[in-house]
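Bench notes, bay 3.
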Amino acid sequence: MRILLTNDDGIYAPGLRALLPELRRLGEVLVVAPATEQSAVGHSVTLTNPLIVQEVLDDERKSIGWAVEGRPADCVKLALRELLPWRPDVVVSGLNAGSNAGINVLYSGTVAAAVEGAFFRVTSVACSLEYSKPTPPDFARGAAYARQIVEQILARKPAVGSLFNVNIPDLERHTPRGVRMVPQNMAAYEESYDRRTDPRGRVYFWSNPEFGCPDPHPDSDVTALKEGWITVTPLQFNLTHEAMLHEIGEWQWRLSLE
């Protein structure tokens, strides 16, 4: 099996480094990941700056892949178009430091990298590990769980280009109760900003790191994760609102040609 490993925390992130040896148990792995942290950049891509690429070596001076001065989606594009000597059987993105559940999926660079793989008709899996700050995540255990989920997804031979979002619960609070296939929670998160003034009197804001979903939908990724389950959610990137498309098809449109 041939595996492309990427992430949004950067190629030197401990989550990626923990997942790399686990995935090597499944086959050949090459890494193409951002040179620096790119958390919450969503599916942005680089258009007006060059994408500088540098080969990265492990402790034994052997190549593990490439660091890209760009976004997670850039990394997958470059990997599949230019860098890899083969087409991967699967794209794995992670292991992210922090969960990517609910509407956070839309902001996540981890998920965006997996979506980019699915664009190219490669089965893709985003993997994230929930944790409670300031406790460091147990990436080694999290990576072992992630590898098992990836392995079982692939054993089922999903359709070409299938896309999955995997979240592992906080291992300091839970030994996972098992695995649940659940939909993405769509309830709004509660967020806030810290308003400050700099020495020159200019107002600026810090996004507070503590936020939550006060009223999540039952039987969703957010609730199942909180209950200690590993969650697996199949995703799609077709954003068409099919019901509304049918509705507006009945509208009468008028244009003025003046």
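Next record in the batch:
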Amino acid sequence: MITLPPDLRSGKHKLSSMYSVEKLTELYEQNFPAEIFTGEPQGLYDPVKHIMSMGGKRIRPLLCLMSADMFGKNPLDALHPAFGVEVFHNFTLVHDDIMDNADIRRGQPAVHALYGLNKGILSGDVMFAYAYKHVSMVPPAILADVFGVFNKTAIEIFEGQQSDMDFETRNDVQESEYLKMIEFKTSVLLGCALKMGAIIGGASEADRDAAYRFGINLGLSFQIKDDFLDTFGEAAKVGKRIGGDILNNKKTYLYIKTFEMAAAGDKEVLTAMLGEKDEEKKIATVKGIMESSGAKKNTEEKIEVLYREALRNLDEISVPEEQKKPLRELAERINNRDY
């Protein structure tokens, strides 16, 4: 049963009353607390409850709700697809942590570290099914459009994850390859959330596409910022060990630019560090070259360029500026975050 805030109980929704990030977050959390994952066997659902109770930024469901709201649709109509997107996102995190052998997620034990590898795999699988269940809870007239976007996105995310793993054993990854990989692994789900919300909101094809492009560029900026914070953030804020990408030989934008911009001698050091077993030495050495080469500054500039492009995409959407304001504010929060 969906919990209605007072201003939505009447069933009326006015374009003049766009909902804030805080309001939509409250609406989402009221209706989809982690505790909804109960049932038997408990060994299947406890790991799901664990990952879903960690919180997180809730960016993807918010984008879906805000997109529907922007186009004048009652955000209640997008609640189930928004939840489906968030469950799908968390499913990918469960399996990513297994593949990356990462034991910490959001400052807490990863699912597989707490419950074991087999339960980690199976709980991820059931989350995948729940994601589709909730995404399908839209009117029949738009189901094919919504599923078309979601299915395409799911396939691209899996392709992006494989590329990410392939890159770990390569030292010749190009910037264009990396950007395509993170577009698939991260950006497309943000674009999907926005486009599904736009479909639910009855937006034109042009506006659906503009909303999707906004999500793509915001997602690219978001992921490069995430990679940046993995290396130059604070562990207490980021919720995981700083330098994990360096230890896993991840070919992030930051690393690629470092290898591109570093002096010849430093490139030899970077190559040698791929096999370095002393973790602290590896992190410190690579971070030092990232700074001295200018790659750190270059990466910060790239994040800002992509963020500005996302705002231009938002400008292209043909609704009054007031209706875009909540999305613009959320994009600013994402860009300015330090976690």
